[in-house]
Amino acid sequence: MSRVIFWSTVTFCTAFLALPLLLVWPLAFNTSSFLTYPLEGLTLDWFHQVLTQPTWVNAFLNSLKVAVGAMALALVIGGLAATGVILVPRALQVVLTGLFVSPLIVPSVVVGVAFAYAFGRAGIGGGYFSLVLAHAVLGAPLVFLSVLTSLRGLDPNLDLAGASMGASRSFRFRTVTLPLALPGFAAGALFAFITSFDEVVVALFLADPGSTTLPIALFAGLRDRLQPSIVVVAVLLSLMSLLFLALLRRLQMRVAAPKS
Amino acid sequence: MSFIEITQVSKHYGAFQALHDVTLSIPKGEFVTLLGPSGSGKTTLLKVLAGFEPVSSGGVLLEGRDITRVPPEKRNFGLVFQGYALFPHMTVEDNIAYPLRVRRRPRGEIAERVGALLKLVQLDRFAGRKPHELSGGQQQRVALARALVFKPDLLLLDEPMSALDKKLRHDLQEELRAIHRTLGTTFINVTHDQEEAMHMSDRIAVMNQGRVEQFDTAHALYRRPVSRFVAEFVGKSNIFAGRIDRGGGGQLFSGPGFTMPVPDCAQGEALALLRPEDVEIAGQAPMDGRIALPVTVTSSTYSGDRALYTLSPPTGAPILAYGSARSGVHPDGAALFAIFAPENAIVLD
Ligand SMILES: Nc1ncnc2c1ncn2[C@@H]1O[C@H](COP(=O)(O)OP(=O)(O)O)[C@@H](O)[C@H]1O
Ligand SMILES: [Mg+2]
């Protein structure tokens, strides 16, 4: 009986999550320029169009630039925050953790308005720089949490052992803590990258025509002309997500492995 | 003056006091063991020695120099952790080389020292392995090599054998003892296993509830324990509750069912200790001034060379006694005499 419940729940949830995606994907290969079933025939023309059209290619490159920049910055901010927080007393850790995680909790619209206003006042509104900055703030908590988790998982005696052998704090950090927490840094970096890559709300507030990101282009395309090329972009984005998911999975296995 | 002087060290964790006025002086080159039940403060004392825990009061001297506030990385003490704390991302070789890399020794010297230590702990063939590819005993030896490679002034070991099975434990005890003899470094070992402590140590500090009850050789702890706790923790024991009174020609101890002369000591309530090997078992009571108590056998454990009997006397606690098992073991329920000489009894305060 419990097996029946288990499998029916699993099936229902999977269908609920995956069906909309599965239904939309085939439309990327449809010869018709309307997003409707039944399919009229199969073609790769829409893929060709997306990969050659400057709008899409530029948007993709913009997104890539912003995401890489945001990831790097988030890695520094979140990584430093986590390695610092682990050293302070317990009570302070709780307060600081709350503070560093807060960008995750504040609604994106609020963050978007706040950044647009603040950057405008500071004279750095619009363009890459503001996008990278804003996305780094959104990504930093993810890096922070991921690194903090992997640091917490380390045996505290390893650091004590290093100290007993005469190693200074910075030497221990470089040779023991950092290498062992590396999977945490990598996972955090991936999270930050994905977050930036498909972030649309804050980007809408900050992007100027020259720095249109892929989600914004997708959004605009959805309103202008509903074409299979949008679905093509969606398929490509999904494939990228799957790739990242697989990467994360491998990283998590590496985090778990050294403990045995 | 001793090599290490621990003077009146107390350690509080909030309201809880983990160490009470611990005073120990440890001569150079000795193998000293801190022995005590779980929670008695052994690890805490070791952490104080290593510099990981600040003392609440008291101090530690190394060759007359106050090191109480010297940080661990400046102490030059080797440390073997309870769980070994090997670096999981480094090979055996790199683990052992770590303290030398810290000290920026030349490459050639590092290779030479690491090679020598690998040989000492018999792990030459495993130099390239990662810790998780080693057995528990091998990991323990890597930890030992890593703690010794930089020629520390003092080696601290926190229950290094506790994760190993009995046979392996015995071999490693021998090995550790041999290494101690070879190097001549001062060792401070922690264990809750009294057999391990007795096998390996020059001297043993018996700890109980944050206090050192007695610091002495294994023989002295066994034959002249200063408290009931030490008597019961080190070896098997029979303890008779009674009182000491002045009698004809000397002091007399009156225990459950017997009276015996004892040397001069305070009168009043007292405990007398008798080790099981000092109790003889026979079918008849001898007529030579020894004490003979009528007993019945409640149980026995046979171990080939001898048998350990639990005997119940008419009054008082059961008595443990070793008996020869060459011609068989007395059956349960057998009526016998437990015989002992008064001079083998030890009066505890
Ligand atoms: N960091 C700590 N905070 C509070 N209490 C502690 C701490 N470390 C040890 N204790 C307490 O001190 C006592 C002695 O601990 P420990 O030295 O680890 O004992 P042992 O090593 O002899 O088993 C225990 O009761 C333990 O609960
Ligand atoms: Mg302990």
Automatic annotation (TrEMBL), chain A:
InterPro entries the UniProt entry points to: MetI-like, MetI-like_sf
Cellular localization per UniProt = Cell inner membrane; Cell membrane
- The protein depicted here goes by the name ABC transporter permease
The cross-references to PROSITE patterns, in alphabetical order and at most eight, read: ABC_TM1 (PS50928)
What is the organism of origin for this protein?
Tabrizicola soli
Tell me the ranges covered by the ABC transmembrane type-1 domain, including all copies.
60-248
What protein family is recorded? Belongs to the binding-protein-dependent transport system permease family.
Q: Which Pfam families match?
A: BPD_transp_1
Organism lineage reads as: Bacteria, Pseudomonadati, Pseudomonadota, Alphaproteobacteria, Rhodobacterales
Q: Where is the major localization of this protein?
A: membrane
- Transmembrane ranges, per UniProt, are 66-88, 95-119, 131-154, 175-194, 229-248
UniProtKB/TrEMBL annotation, chain B:
Q: Does the keyword Cytoplasm apply?
A: no
Q: Which GO terms describe its molecular function?
A: ATP binding
Can you tell me which family this protein belongs to? Belongs to the ABC transporter superfamily. Spermidine/putrescine importer (TC 3.A.1.11.1) family.
Name the Enzyme Commission number(s) assigned to this protein: 7.6.2.11
NCBIfam families of this UniProt entry?
Answer: potA
Give the catalysed reaction(s), semicolon-separated: ATP + H2O + polyamine-[polyamine-binding protein]Side 1 = ADP + phosphate + polyamineSide 2 + [polyamine-binding protein]Side 1
Q: Which InterPro entries does its entry note?
A: AAA+_ATPase, ABC_SmlMolc_Importer, ABC_transporter-like_ATP-bd, ABC_transporter-like_CS, Mo/tungstate-bd_C_term_dom, P-loop_NTPase, PotA-like, Transp-assoc_OB_typ2
Q: What is this protein called?
A: Spermidine/putrescine import ATP-binding protein PotA
The protein's matches in PANTHER family, at most eight in alphabetical order, are given as:
SPERMIDINE/PUTRESCINE IMPORT ATP-BINDING PROTEIN POTA, SPERMIDINE_PUTRESCINE IMPORT ATP-BINDING PROTEIN POTA
- PROSITE patterns according to UniProt: ABC_TRANSPORTER_1 (PS00211), ABC_TRANSPORTER_2 (PS50893)
Its function? Part of the ABC transporter complex PotABCD involved in spermidine/putrescine import. Responsible for energy coupling to the transport system.
Ranges for domain ABC transporter come to 4-234
Its keywords, alphabetically, are: ATP-binding, Cell membrane, Membrane, Nucleotide-binding, Translocase, Transport
On the tree of life, the source organism's domain of life is: Bacteria
Q: What class of enzyme is it?
A: translocase
Query: What Gene3D superfamilies does the entry give?
Result: P-loop containing nucleotide triphosphate hydrolases (3.40.50.300)
Subunit structure comment from the entry: The complex is composed of two ATP-binding proteins (PotA), two transmembrane proteins (PotB and PotC) and a solute-binding protein (PotD).
